[in-house]
Amino acid sequence: MHKSEDDAVDELLQTYGETGGINYLDAAATLPSRLSIETACTDLMSLMFPGFRSEQVVSSEDLAEITRVRVRNLRARLKTEICRSLGKIPPNEATELQADKCLSDFFAELPNVRRLLWTDIDAAFEGDPAARSYEEIILAYPSLEAIAIQRMAHVLYEMNLPLIPRIMTEWAHSRTGIDIHPGAKIGSHFFIDHGTGVVIGETSEIGKRVKLYHSVTLGARSFQKDEHGKIKKGGKRHPTVEDDVTIYPGSTILGGQSVIGARSTIGGNVFLVQSVPADSLVYYEEKQLRIVPKRKKKPTSSRDEFSSE
Questions:
Q1: What is the pLDDT of residue 14?
Q2: What digits encode the pLDDT tens for the residues 150-167?
Q3: Which residue in 178, 228, 236, 240 has its CB near the most CB atoms, within 10 A?
Q4: CA separation, residue 194 to residues 104, 177, 285 (Å)
Q5: Degrees (nearest 5) of the Cα angle 232, 155, 146?
């Protein structure tokens, strides 16, 4: 017997009252708004790259005032979401003070973030022969957007701010196909060529002048479990990649104890669950490649082609 629509709604409503950790109902006002955070990400990209990320024309004469207005607007937008993330709407005095400090520290770090991003743009220009200009990289390279958002989200992650850093990097992930956890520590001059399918886990540590290609994974090998069989949270689960390493497409490196030594090159489609000494070249021996002429097909007569006999 088919349920009526009313019966289905009644049963759905019943599940909302059941336990399970997915129903937030009356407390939903204390969750940060994804839409608001995503809008803030767009505004932050305009703050990092004025004149590149918005339709508004920015002249040198107006830049100071426009920047101050952007920061004021961002501060107001983010303060509400930070208070929600901290679990207090309307906020009490302590929550407001905590949010204000978080925002002050965040905006104080943005100049350093922007300096780091210029090293990433340098790395992209030097590392990609197809790059014709810095303008092309800023306007059109998805890796720069993913890295820029991750670097800003990392600042908030380091403050132990819940939810918002992850929403920021997931916004970039959905737009670029590049999934970098806000907890990852990334040095200067970082470049991801193409980028689609790259995954960088929370406890990854990446040195300076590292270059990754598409479909590279820096992931966890296994998870420790407690006495109840539940996965233990935290701990070093993802690899360390030292300075001047290049990792080619399709390679997977797993485990918190895995260290890729400085100046090493990891070839395409390599699977690693161990450390590699500095100055190493890691690759699989190629199978023998054969190139032979195709067999010529015997011409088929129209009678043979259409006959049902």
A1: 82
A2: 999 999 999 999 999 999
A3: 178
A4: 35, 10, 25
A5: 90
The whole-angstrom separation of Cα 42 and Cα 116 is: 19
**What tokens were used for 264?**
């090493």
* Cα angle for residues 256, 261, 264 (degrees, 5° grid): 125
Q: Quote the percentage of the chain above a pLDDT of 90.
A: 69
Could you read off the pLDDT of 187-219 as tens digits, one per residue? 999 999 999 999 999 999 999 999 999 999 999
Can you state the angle between helices 93-127 and 34-48, rounded to 10 degrees?
Answer: 50
Burial label for 280, CB within 10 Å (0-12, 13-18, 19+), is middle
pLDDT in tens, 45-57: 999 998 876 666 6
Give the residue extent of every domain in the chain.
Answer: 26-177, 197-298
pLDDT at 2 over 70: no
Domain 26-177, architecture per CATH: Orthogonal Bundle (1.10)
For the 197-298 domain, the top CATH level (class) is mainly beta
Angstrom distances, CA of residue 218 to CA of 185, 224, 259, 269: 12, 18, 11, 13
User: What is the DSSP annotation of 34-91?
Assistant: HHHHHHHHHHHHHHHSTTTSSSS---TTTHHHHHHHHHHHHHHHHHHHHHHHTT-SS-
Q: 197-298: same fold as 26-177?
A: no
Q: Hey, is 200 helix, strand or coil?
A: strand
Sheet of strand 246-247: strand arrangement: 191-192, 211-212, 246-247, 265-266, 281-282
CB 236 within 8 A of CB 217: no
Interstrand relation of 259-260 and 265-266 (parallel, antiparallel or unpaired): unpaired
